[in-house]
Specification:
The complex is a heterodimer of chains A (430) and B (461). Chain A is of the alpha+beta class and 430 residues long. Chain A is built from 9 helices and 21 strands. Helix content of chain B is 21%, strand content 42%. Classes of the chains: A alpha+beta (430), B alpha+beta (461). At the A-B interface, strand 2, strand 3, helix 2, strand 7 and helix 8 of A face strand 1, strand 2, strand 3, strand 7 and strand 15 of B.
């Protein structure tokens, strides 16, 4: 699609604006297995495309979207965005003039049905008779053009595979694991299955126990899930508006001085690069927290304009139907100067969280959330289920005591790249 | 949108593979929203998308294809491609069906259009003003109005042809209060089928005062005692427990996949005779109602638990075919881009004969839980956790101090067993929610009067 004539039309009306077009196609196959009988659940094929249009009128921004690509429909959307702009607050937004292409190509191709067959074989060979597995091949393209001359094209492809076994003991327990890869031919399916089983068995037939003074380690997906709720605390909009724990704390040491948090535009563990955000801003590698000190909030175009800051390249559009949100692409946790997890006598490894969206107040830090996992006590592995973890997360993040020597990357809104981290100060009650 | 004959033409392509079932779902969906935050109108947005999807069920497997911005020709091509991908030749190609326009028991209500985004600006500003004037401790206010209008057509292989316009409007208000050392959040929201008449029924003061009261009172809130305590679940919001901890376990796909604690329990007594749990798509004006489900069937009311006894699961047509469970018209999807699954509509506890006052006086030490921030349940075990965002201590039969946010932990089956009292019709209320499943989010209502549970584990101090 070429939107340049529509962008010119916006400019001709003495307005500024941008048009974001995305085209996502996806093929997905899911299998299920009950009583050792694998079966095909569904085969899904989609191609969804459309555009989001922002018009800036006297500094006020309005938004409209659509997926009909005829002249009349696009012009109507521009008109709607222009009308909506009359309601917004004036901001001194300056649209970027970035130009570039960003291509993430697959390193290999694979038949997703074959991937699922192999998963099925491995589970059945391990006498796992109840499971579900999904394999997807997704291809997404987006194009951004604006009245400042920006023209960015991005193209990404990836395979993703998710598996969820149900394991049996006295009762049953389910858990999941997944992989996102550009090289499906070399995907380690055995590792994928084993990791899912480790997590499913970890809390099988576990009991609630009360533990004090035991460090807690969140497994990689749970750590990423936790941060999907906490990361917003570094949003400049929240910090400036007094809606963040970090409001008024710039340059103060607020977290453990062993911990740094950095936004990145690429990382070896993350498939693809993120050189440009969906507003046309170069994604800047910046530290949010450096050796425990809060050094910088992140800003999208609108929030940067509102508070007189430089945008950091966090304008994300999860669909053409939504306006950009300030969400980082890659959030990298760096731990220095701490012993490894193996040095701990014992710790609780959390492999499932419940109720985090209602049990965590990111502003105050107070949390009370449900968890399952396993108590690792030397050679002993004691399953734990139905416990409540409570405390203040910001206090807890001041008490980082150990970390694994290996990093994992988990997509959870942002990609979270981090070692496993041991935290003191969490009350475990069951 | 298409004519009945157009969709029938597309259907002919699917008949060549003699599927067990198929449906063609067409949708034109318009969303509008306006937010006011920090006294500033933000993110004005309006837009429309148009799309369709075709689904065929063959030998129990679902084959699904999405057509964006479809023409009749592109729909026919998609149906041909889908049929050829199934690789099944019909034993009797050319099979046909008798097309019929079906009626719904839910009658169409008039609703007030939202023509210009600016129509709600004053309402949002008034909400902001009221909230800020409620108490000097109110530090920040965010409020929004959003609406989705969805024009839907469905044709299915039973010959059902349905057409419906669905409008849902929702108001949110979030208030942050601070005493200098801590920050608390209070929220209020309401959503109904319909349009801007919602703003006439519920005033800006209503939302502002409801949210501000909670945020400010929680600044002086006490930490709830931990342990097993009697809990009174408040009207409307309290129903989220039954949605999450019971409802999801009664969805037929979870039963078929053997990942539900409710498997094999039809006919069993799960609660006292005071408990009747209903899932209905035809409660007039309520958030989760629709005239038809998303597979082309008239919506209905389904009694799940009748006077304590489990009597039904919730099944879409696919699960009905696969399992033989009675079809309850629970096939729902977020939009044309998604496969339908068995989903709840408005799930509620039917009012009983007890009184709130009697419930209170029966409790020496307990919790009154009025609002919940949501929850999560493991359908395999029925274990759940919920966050209470507005709650109060009950001491010696009286409501005393507000409590800080706290979690409630338990098991769905245990909660049912422990329901001691259900209050009457006058306390009944419904609230809107968005229910997540299979990566989709659909509008689902929750409801109940006051319900007393003899014990729930409170994760306090």
């Amino acid at each position: 699609m070429d939107f340049s004539k529509y962008v010119s039309l916006i400019a001709k009306n003495n307005e500024a604006g941008d048009i974001f077009y995305s085209d996502v196609s996806m093929k997905s196959v899911r299998i299920g297995c009950v009583e050792g009988q694998p079966h095909l659940e569904d085969v899904s094929s989609k191609e969804v495309s459309g555009y989001g249009i922002r018009v800036i009128k006297d500094g006020r921004m309005g938004f409209s979207f659509g997926n009909k690509t005829d002249d009349e429909s696009i012009l109507q959307s521009i008109e709607y965005a222009s009308q909506a702009a009359e309601l917004g607050e004036p901001l001194n937004i300056s649209l970027p003039s970035t130009q570039g292409n960003e291509v993430t190509e697959l390193k290999s191709e694979s038949d997703i049905n074959e991937i699922l067959d192999r998963i099925s074989e491995i589970y059945l060979s391990k006498r796992i008779t109840k499971f579900e597995a999904t394999a997807e091949r997704e291809s997404s393209k987006w194009l951004l053009t604006n009245t400042s001359g920006a023209h960015i094209m991005s193209s990404e492809e990836a395979y993703s595979v998710t598996v969820m076994p149900v394991v049996s003991g006295i009762g049953e327990n389910a858990n999941y694991w997944f992989a996102v890869t550009l090289d499906p031919e070399n995907l380690d399916i055995n590792e994928l299955v084993l990791r899912s089983l480790d997590r499913a068995y970890s809390s099988l037939d576990g009991k609630g126990i009360n533990l004090k003074g035991i460090p807690v380690v969140f497994d990689a997906p749970e750590w990423a899930e936790l941060w999907s709720f906490l990361l917003d605390s570094f949003s400049g909009k929240n910090v400036e508006r007094g809606k963040s724990f970090f409001s008024g704390k710039l340059s103060q040491r607020v977290l453990s001085d062993h911990l740094s948090i950095k936004l990145e535009n690429n990382h070896p563990k993350v498939p693809g690069n993120f050189l440009y955000d969906n507003e046309g801003v170069n994604v800047q590698p910046v530290f949010l927290v450096e050796e425990g000190a809060f050094v910088q909030a992140y800003y999208g175009l609108a929030s940067a304009a509102e508070f007189g800051k430089v945008p950091t390249g966090v304008g994300r559009r999860f669909s053409f139907e939504t306006q950009p949100l300030d969400v980082p692409f890659i959030c990298h946790f760096q731990i220095e100067g701490l012993p490894t997890l193996e040095s701990l006598d014992k710790y609780l490894l959390v492999t499932s969280l419940k109720g985090i969206h209602s049990g965590l107040n990111a502003v105050s830090g107070a949390f009370s959330i449900g968890a399952d996992g396993v108590l690792l006590d030397g050679e002993k592995h004691i399953p734990v289920s139905g416990v409540t973890l409570s405390g203040n997360i910001w206090d807890v993040l001041n008490q980082v005591i150990a970390a694994s020597d290996k990093e994992e990357a988990i997509p959870s809104g942002s990609w979270v790249v981090s070692p496993l981290v041991a935290l003191d100060g969490i009350t475990i009650s069951g | 949108m298409f004519t009945q004959e157009d969709l029938e033409r597309v259907a002919q392509e699917l008949l060549t593979i003699s599927p067990d079932f198929f449906d063609i779902f067409v949708e034109e969906r318009t969303n509008k929203s306006l937010v006011l935050e920090s006294k500033k109108l933000e993110r004005p947005s309006v837009g429309t998308v148009f799309g369709a999807s075709i689904r065929a069920v063959v030998n129990g497997a679902t084959y699904f294809s999405v057509v964006d911005n479809p023409s009749l020709e592109s729909l026919i091509v998609a149906a041909k491609e889908l049929s050829s991908s199934v690789k099944q030749t019909a034993s009797n190609p050319g099979n046909t069906f008798i097309l019929r326009k079906v009626e719904s028991p839910l009658k169409k209500d008039e609703w007030k259009q939202w023509s210009q985004l600016s129509e709600v600006a004053d309402y949002l500003k008034a909400t902001d003003d009221y909230a800020r004037s409620y108490d000097s401790k109110v530090a920040q206010v965010s409020s929004s109005v959003s609406q989705q209008i969805s024009n839907v057509q469905v044709l299915n292989s039973l010959g059902n042809f349905t057409e419906e316009q669905r409008s849902r409007t929702r108001v949110f208000c979030l208030v942050y209060a601070s005493d200098g050392s801590s920050v608390e959040v209070g929220s209020a929201n309401q959503g109904k089928m319909g349009g801007l008449e919602l703003l006439q029924k519920y005033s800006p003061e209503f939302f502002a005062a409801s949210a501000a009261k909670v945020a400010v009172s929680k600044l002086k809130g006490v930490v709830a005692p931990s342990g097993e305590l009697p809990v009174i679940l408040g009207p409307g919001f309290g129903g989220v427990i039954f949605h999450e901890a019971i409802g999801h376990s009664l969805e037929a796909d979870a039963i078929r996949k053997e990942v539900s604690v409710m498997r094999g329990k039809i006919g069993q007594r799960l609660a006292s005779s005071k408990v009747t749990l209903i899932d209905s798509g035809i409660v007039p004006g309520e958030w989760g109602s629709n005239a038809f489900d998303d597979e082309g069937f008239p919506n209905q009311e389904t009694v799940l638990i009748k006077e304590g006894q489990l009597v039904s699961y919730m099944s879409d047509y696919l699960e009905h075919l696969l399992t033989g469970f009675p079809h309850t018209a629970n096939g729902r999807r977020e939009g044309y881009e998604y496969i339908p699954y068995p989903r709840m509509r408005n799930t509620y506890i039917q009012p009983g004969n007890d009184t709130f006052e009697d419930m209170l006086t029966s409790i020496k030490k307990g919790i009154l839980a009025l609002k919940f921030g949501g929850g999560q349940v493991d359908p395999v075990t029925g274990n759940f956790i919920f966050g209470v965002t507005e709650g109060y201590l009950i001491e010696d039969g009286k409501v005393t101090a507000p409590i800080k946010d706290v979690s409630m932990v338990g098991n769905g089956l245990s909660i049912l067993e422990n329901i001691e009292a259900v209050s009457s019709e006058k306390d009944m209320d419904f609230m809107p929610g968005m229910c997540g499943k299979e990566g989709q989010s659909v509008a689902a209502g929750i409801g109940e009067p006051y319900v007393k549970v003899s014990r729930i584990l409170i994760g306090g101090e």
